[in-house]
Design brief:
The complex is a heterodimer of chains A (119) and B (950). Chain A has 119 residues and is an alpha+beta fold. Chain A contains 4 helices and 3 strands. Classes of the chains: A alpha+beta (119), B alpha+beta (950).
Amino acid sequence: MSERYKNRVELLQGTLDLLILQTLMWGPQHGYGVSQAIRANSGDLLQVDAGSLYPALHRLEKQKWIGADWKISENNQEVKVYRLTAAGRKQLMKERSRWEQISDAIGGVLNPAKKESAS
Amino acid sequence: MRLSWLWRKREKELEKEIQHHLRMAEEEREERGASSHEARAGARREFGNVGLVKEVTRDTWGWRWLENLYEDLRYGFRALGKNKGFAAIAILTLALGIGANTAIFSLIDAVLLRAIPVRDASQLVVAQWRAHKEPNNHNTMGYGDCEDVHENSLRGYCSFSEPFYKEIRAQEGVFSSLAAFAGGDRLDLSENGAASTVEGAEYVSGNYFETLGVQPALGRLITSGDDSPTATAVAVLSYNYWRSRFGGAPSVVGKNILLNKIPFTIIGVAEPRFDSLSPGNALQMWIPLSALPQLNQLNQPWDNREVDPLSWWLVLVGRLQPGTPRAQAQAAVSTIFHNAMTSGAKPIFKTEDDPAITLTPVEQGLTGNRTESSTPLYVLMLAVGIVLLIACANVAGLMLARATSRQKEMAVRFALGASRGRILRQLLTESLMLSLAGGALGILFASWCDVSIVTFLNSGDNGSPLFSPSIDSRVLFFTAVVSILTGVLFGLAPALRGLRVDLTPALKEGAGSSSQTVRARKVRMNPGNSLVVAQVALSIVVLAGAGLLVRTLQNLKNLDPGFDTRNILTFSLNPTLIGYKSADTDNMYGELRSRLSAIPGVVSVSYSWTALLGGGRWSTSFHLHGNRKEEESNSDVLPVGPDFFQTMRIPLLAGREFSALDFATAQTIAAAEAAERAAAAAKLKPGVKPAASQAQTADLPARPAIVNQAFARKYFPKGNVIGQRFGKEAANPETGEDKNPGWEIVGVVADARYDKLRREVKPTTYVPNCGGSVAFALRTQTDPEKFVPRIRAMVSQLDSNLPVYNIRTESQQIDRQILKERLIARLSGFFGMLALLLACIGLYGLISYEVARRTREIGIRTALGAGKREVLRLVLSQGMRLTLVGTVVGLGLALGLTQYTKNLLFGVKAADPVTYVAVTLLLVGVTLAASYVPARRATRVDPVVALRHE
């Protein structure tokens, strides 16, 4: 049962990290917020399930690329809010340029004339 | 627990985070118009399995193993707590097994493994010589620092002459320093008028401590400046001696003491960990070699040994020069040795004797007490190792039985998705908890054992203990490793079995139901049976070994030493230590003898050079008339006082005991010989002119001697022994001729043991004692220990400065001699009983379990008319089958393994049938009893209850 999640996490890993870091670039956000932002910004195409999201958030936190603070929400609930750290920002730049390279490379191979716009 | 607090906090945070996620998703759905119920369900569905999300998230924390461990531990505690009886028996069993191993290992650690406490021991070497013949020297003396090679065609030891030491030391470029030592001797110590003895005083060269790299704990140690004839006499104390004799007072430095009546100054105390270079040879004091001649210590042939190349008594320890390989140093020393041995007017060795010298690292070369103790220790280690195996088998059997009752639990865990690895880990955690708890308790048991062993070793003896076992870090490490291995060993099989669960039947039906039982009987009982067989077999091995050692002890105890050991008290005196001359000594002994004889209850009094069975021995080679010149005969020699044979009750077979005239003759000869030796010594010493006139010993009458039967049989097989003469100690080294007229036999006595019970009686010559130190022997009518205060009072009346030491009855003397055998017999007997007990518990457990499991079957049998006898036989036969198989296997194993005890046995063979039969009977009897109890229970099974049971 846990096999299923593991495979998916692995498939998405690099990309999901990139997406999370990019999402937090726009400001601190809690876990649900991150998932909703990715969903909205991908035009409902990318749905990150909780079984991938939370392990990724906790892993990034452990790697010190994102930090976490506890805040109290309007309905008096404790909320864990993630924010990008300086190291995370650097990591984001690295990942972005890597992604762009790969994306360009794949695009070039597939069809030099046509351009895909998924983001 | 901090860790669990941190853990719980993170757990709670994750929970909050997820709850928040769900709430937000819910709210959003509600905003979009869903009912609250739909919203909640939708949010949940979208989120997925909360538990699983939590788990995969937790995985990223990298604490997974810790979490599992924590869970396993908690679970284990709960599982064991549920079954306290099982846990208690398992832990106790393991504690006994592991504790016994820890105790014996701590002995091995103390005797065999503890490193020699010096700086950079790998650079230290000890010199040892080998040759095909005894050296043609005056004497070779040793204190047991290294192995005494005495094989058919090989002789060897590690003592050398002082001139040879100086010769090598002068050699450049071999050693960075070369030290010499000899000891420990007994010295008489007096301080502020109080007399006592130093049990182990070692004579060391000035560079000894510097060469070894030993530091002082207080004051300073002996240096080269102290080792000179003109220096003030100084002494260094061992740390333990300083604590026990001087109360650890720092003011001891600079204190003046008298050693053998000669003033010495204490200059310091050695560091605590250094009490001897040779293991198990604890010393109390070190004094410079240069102080030795003043000490008057060894008056007899050794008095000029510092210049005599024919007196070998020093152990040489060198520190190799950095960069000089041992082989190179050895080659350099060999050349010197070979030249020194084979050259000169009268060479010590001939070239064909192939004299050789080797330099051995001190840790291998200086064996001290190691060699002697290693065999019994390894045998004991083997025994306790087997006991631990039995304990493992025992606990494994318990775990197996328990695994059956836990099948349902395991099945539930499997069904809930636990992986095999996870369950295996859980089960192993449980067994490790048991074994570590057992190990912890075992350490307590081991320290109790150590205390008992030390108490036993020190009982009735005031000498310093040979070794002091203690639970140090190495022992603790050993225990930890053994505990973990034990846990894995006994836990693995049941755990693997626990994994082989067929889910459906296990869940569906309760334990003990019929369909399961049938299957179980085929599969499950096999490991249980083989565990009991293994326990029985291993117990036989331990019991057989213990039986042989106990028989050895009995043989030694029942051995007739050739004299009456009952009601004999011995004590030692050494008046030469306080300056008595030979003639005064003899007078004093005579006076003391007559005073002691006057005590009511004292039957007779005599003395000898050393007490019989006291461990000391003097043997000599002599020339037998009619033999070729080179051919030497050997005899043990014991100088004795008047009425010795009568006092010891050694039967006189022919001739007479020594008369007063015999003693007078012996004294005259001794005086003449002393004069001769003094002259010879003067010749060797540079700058002293030899005395003009020498006493002519050849003109003296023959010295009277009494020989034992062994002597008469071997050297005078034709009989007619009385009046025969034979040569003296050795052929004259100068001329190669006999020292005439030698000894004349005046009597023959029955054979009696001399130094040791275990050493067979050799040809022995008894001669009249002249001067020197002696051991008095009193034969009393009643308990000889009552006479001790009277004796002390009488000796101090004669001379208040004269210490009395080694006061022992002859039976204590024997006990002391067989101390090692007694200890080994006692320990192995104890371990044998432990093994038997564990095997019985194992068998009892198995049979009880079987009876419980077969209640229904027994009920049916009873209902169908089986009588109590049949039921009893049914149950007992199973126990007996296992016992018999185990016994056969065990006897086979024992025959092989007891070969290792061969060197320890006395008067009994390793394959002693009596022992094996006795052990088998004992085991069969006890196991029969162990299975009888549950069998009785089986006969009381009520068929109605048993059948309704389901």
